[in-house]
From TrEMBL:
Protein's name according to its UniProt entry: Dol-P-Man:Man(5)GlcNAc(2)-PP-Dol alpha-1,3-mannosyltransferase
GO cellular component: endoplasmic reticulum membrane
Pathway: Protein modification; protein glycosylation
Catalysed conversion reaction: an alpha-D-Man-(1->2)-alpha-D-Man-(1->2)-alpha-D-Man-(1->3)-[alpha-D-Man-(1->6)]-beta-D-Man-(1->4)-beta-D-GlcNAc-(1->4)-alpha-D-GlcNAc-diphospho-di-trans,poly-cis-dolichol + a di-trans,poly-cis-dolichyl beta-D-mannosyl phosphate = an alpha-D-Man-(1->2)-alpha-D-Man-(1->2)-alpha-D-Man-(1->3)-[alpha-D-Man-(1->3)-alpha-D-Man-(1->6)]-beta-D-Man-(1->4)-beta-D-GlcNAc-(1->4)-alpha-D-GlcNAc-diphospho-di-trans,poly-cis-dolichol + a di-trans,poly-cis-dolichyl phosphate + H(+)
Taxonomic source organism: Smithornis capensis
EC annotation from Swiss-Prot or TrEMBL: 2.4.1.258
Function: Dol-P-Man:Man(5)GlcNAc(2)-PP-Dol alpha-1,3-mannosyltransferase that operates in the biosynthetic pathway of dolichol-linked oligosaccharides, the glycan precursors employed in protein asparagine (N)-glycosylation. The assembly of dolichol-linked oligosaccharides begins on the cytosolic side of the endoplasmic reticulum membrane and finishes in its lumen. The sequential addition of sugars to dolichol pyrophosphate produces dolichol-linked oligosaccharides containing fourteen sugars, including two GlcNAcs, nine mannoses and three glucoses.
Length: 448
């Protein structure tokens, strides 16, 4: 009898708790509706807006998969390349597909081998599209988690980062490229860096590199952060983690033909076809293929990294060589905002100086653009011009084939972003990296 009497009470309590939760949720929605202007402009509403956009993106991806025809570009070649490995071929120079030889590191082979078996040897395209739609949502969640930590970008901007980009949806669910796989792993590693889990972050960063080499554009910024956080001796174990994973993943191929594996998977001198370039269409093809032009771009990239490392990533109050010292004798580690700024700007400098950008390369920096535009004070570049820059960049990447006008416009947009990063970030970084005062005032607490 006591047990029977207690059961209705427990049910009543559970119903009461669920009713209270529903009321709290409804109250939150009513409050958000009353403050809808603030919800669009105040970064503190990023989690709510992110949740709504992720739900919307689920529907958008399903609509794209069912309504927009799939276009075969590289998926069949990917499957042919990993099929050779599945059949026992360990000589990397013998792995190839319809589009040419395999030119990605070993991590790509293992991940796409899993997709090869999951999709019936690559024949079930629709299932592959659904898997990439899931990857799209996972990637979006990881990006939103980063933006929640920065607390810089107004939430209305995320609409342009999600539902409004045709090219990004195409790269994920209509083309099935390997670039999104590498970027999703990269964003997971950045989340770990922000949480101060550097060893796991380095492991996943190296895994992302093993899928596609474009992740190396983040490497200069990561090296700077490791030196800043651990000093010269302390960062060596982290670099060893990155190197060791590359050796383990590539070991089956290194044992058979080490030179073939290294030259194919990490070919930094590979030539690109002029017909696919998005950023250098305004140049003559002979200039585009000229080695002197490639060397000039490399020098420009190195010079940009050096300038940012000396004057934007590093406080001007101390010599940059102090990064080599024991961190205990220096300032505390960088806050999350500085970590993200350094990594995103390092990658952006590499994109600006790339020998060629193909349409799938848009995903290399697309999700970082809102941060790069809004990490500086709004007075440096007002909201509307920033949104306009996002729109023009999107238009340039959706112009096929690229034109002289579209490629020039893309460079102009990149140049404007670089200028506002250079002139708008130095005071912010110094204030974030400066040590806290011993007697903080009420005003200083609010700023922090």
């Amino acid at each position: 009898l006591p047990a029977r009497a207690g059961a209705p009470r427990e049910a009543l309590r559970a119903e009461t708790r669920s009713g209270m939760a529903a009321e709290r949720g409804a109250a939150a929605l009513r409050r958000a509706w009353r403050e809808r202007r603030a919800a669009l402009l105040e970064p503190r509403y990023t989690p709510l807006v992110a949740a709504c956009l992720c739900l919307a993106e689920g529907g958008v991806n399903l609509w794209v998969i069912r309504r927009v025809p799939y276009t075969e570009i590289d998926w069949k070649a990917y499957m042919q390349e990993v099929e050779g490995f599945a059949n026992g071929t360990l000589d990397y120079t013998q792995l190839k597909g319809d589009t040419g030889p395999l030119v990605y590191p070993a991590g790509f082979v293992y991940i796409f081998l899993g997709l090869y078996y999951a999709t019936g040897r690559g024949s079930n395209i629709r299932l592959a599209q659904y898997l990439f739609a899931g990857l799209y949502l996972l990637n979006l969640l990881l990006v939103f988690r980063i933006y929640c930590r920065t607390n810089k970008v107004p939430p209305y901007v995320f609409f342009f980062m999600c539902c409004a980009s045709y090219r990004i949806h195409s790269i994920f669910v209509l083309r099935l490229f390997n670039d999104p796989v590498a970027m999703a792993i990269l964003f997971l590693s950045i989340n770990l860096f922000v949480e101060e889990r550097w060893s796991w972050g380095c492991l996943l960063f190296s895994l992302a590199v093993s899928v596609k080499m474009n992740i190396l554009l983040f490497a200069p910024g990561l090296l700077f952060l490791l030196l800043q956080r651990f000093g010269l001796l302390g960062c060596i174990p982290k670099l060893c983690i990155c190197a060791l994973l590359q050796v383990i993943l590539g070991l089956p191929f290194l044992l058979v033909n080490p030179l073939g594996y290294l030259t194919r998977s990490f070919d930094l001198g590979r030539q690109f076809l002029f017909k696919w370039t998005v950023n250098w269409r305004f140049l003559p093809e002979e200039v585009f293929q000229n080695r002197a032009f490639h060397a000039a771009l490399l020098l420009a990239h190195l010079a940009g990294l050096a300038l940012f490392a000396l004057h934007r990533w590093h406080s001007s109050k101390e010599n940059i060589l102090t990064l080599l010292k024991d961190p205990a004798k220096r300032k505390s580690a960088s806050p999350p905002l500085t970590i993200i700024f350094i990594l995103f700007s390092s990658n952006f400098l590499g994109v600006c100086c790339s020998r060629s950008l193909h349409y799938q390369f848009y995903v290399w920096y697309f999700h970082t653009l809102p941060y790069l535009l809004w990490c500086t004070p709004t007075t440096k570049l007002a909201h509307m011009p920033k949104v306009l820059l996002l729109g023009v960049i999107e238009l340039c990447w959706n112009t096929y084939p690229s034109t002289v006008c579209s490629s020039l416009s893309l460079h102009i947009c990149h140049g404007l972003i670089l200028l506002q990063l250079w002139y708008g970030t130095a005071p912010t970084l110094v204030s974030h990296t400066a040590p806290p005062s011993r007697k903080p005032t009420v005003t200083s607490k609010k700023k922090q």
